[in-house]
Amino acid sequence: MQIFQTIADLRQALKLVKNDGLSIGLVPTMGNLHEGHLSLVSSAGKQCDFVITTIFVNPTQFSPNEDLQNYPRSFDVDIKALSSLNCDAVFAPKVEEIYPAGPALDTLVTTPSLSKLHCGASRPGHFDGVCTVVTKLFNLCQPDKAYFGEKDYQQLTIIKNLVQDLNLPIEIIGMPTTRETSGLALSSRNNYLSLEQKQQATILYQSLKNTVKTLEQDSNPIFSELEQVALKLISSAGLDPDYFSICNAKSLLPAKPGDKDLVLLVAANLENTRLIDNISIKLI
Ligand code: PAF
């Protein structure tokens, strides 16, 4: 497995890969890899000839009051995990490599409508940072396929739209959320939680599952009422809910009566830790 820190070295290696006509699979990450990330790398290895994992804690997707400084970093452990998989290259640039003129860029990739919903409403600028860095990584790695977790459902939807709107010849592949046996979705931010808090946080998945059950049983559900029930349940477990939204799975707008293809999106804070989760459901 090759490790690159500079764009020049990455480009030189990828020239050879392209010359050999190999397909490239990209797994963009911010490191601190867990089983969810590793499942993306494994899938990329099955579907592509050459797999690149990027490790880059992207400063432009954090607001000034967020956890950029404390974001868990575990480079050596990550490299060990990746080298036991079919990962061919790691691109782990320094911030100056990606943002040579500083992170306050004048050129941004923005998706104004989707980015202002849900997580974007409480994290202004977050998705501009994500879209800009992901577009940079796409330009640098020139992948045929790129892999993202469904846990970040809004991010995945935005990136699928971005690729379509900018005519990028990249297939975006969303992979199912990996969970602990308790149901808690794996996330690097779970590292901030104590064992007791991890147990508390399972309320997010429980609230999603409860709502799915009601939706499946109720022939005429009132979405706003179900959202309120879920929000109360989350609060009563000691979390501070940001939103619980029953949405159209494609537009991410509030679901309308008769919508069948839905996604339930939730975000909540547990003390200083922001947690998100979701479930997709097709009503019949
Ligand atoms: O999902 C993440 O880890 C990040 O948002 C991503 C896609 C690597 C961009 O920094």
How are the SSEs placed, and which strands pair?
Layout lengths: L1 E3 L2 H13 L4 E6 L5 H13 L2 E6 L19 H9 L5 E3 L3 H4 L13 H4 L3 H4 L3 H16 L3 E5 L3 H13 L5 E5 L19 H7 L1 H15 L5 H14 L3 E9 L12 E10 L2 E10 L2
Parallel strand pairs: 1-4, 2-3, 2-5, 3-4, 5-6
Antiparallel strand pairs: 7-8, 8-9
Helix pairs in contact: 7-8, 10-11
Characteristics:
Rossmann fold, Pantoate--beta-alanine Ligase, Chain: A,domain 2, three-stranded antiparallel sheet, 11 helices, globular, binds pantoate
What is this entry, summarized?
The chain folds into 2 domains: 2-175, Rossmann fold; 188-282, Pantoate-beta-alanine ligase, C-terminal domain (Pantoate--beta-alanine Ligase, Chain: A,domain 2, 2-Layer Sandwich). It is built from 11 helices and 9 strands.
Q: What name does CATH use for the topology of the largest domain?
A: Rossmann fold
CATH architecture classification name of the largest domain: 3-Layer(aba) Sandwich
- Give the spatial strand order of the biggest sheet: 1-4-3-2-5-6
In the CATH hierarchy, what is the superfamily of the largest domain? HUPs
